[in-house]
Amino acid sequence: MPAEAQKGRELPKGLGITTSGAKRFWKTWSTAPQTAAWAETDWAELELTTKLVDGLFKGDLKLAGEIRQRVAKWGATVEDRSRLRMTFQKPGEEETAAPSPARVEMDIDEELYKLLNGS
Length: 119
Hints:
- The chain has 5 helices and no strands.
- Helix 1 (20-30) packs antiparallel against helix 2 and helix 2 runs antiparallel to helix 3 (64-72).
- By secondary structure, the protein is mostly helical.
- The protein is elongated and about 80 Å long.
- The protein has one domain (13-117).
């Protein structure tokens, strides 16, 4: 998965988010590298969770546990990403692909041909 932040989405005005903490939460998550693979259902979850975060910043501390459970599923912390086996490709880092089986067979054939022909 690429490590670059995504363009993100605008915070839907219809959510009625009023706290700067919830707006910051939306911006952070909507541009996170994880969002590159998100489906509409994931975005819907972000909307619901942002509403909970808005309530948390308004003082409803009972919401903290629910929020933590939700963001853990998205890979919020290093520990969460490790548990989910989630990795990000660093910018400029090439993916190292193992040689394809066809190429390995061809290399073996070439070596055998050279060996048999004394090359």
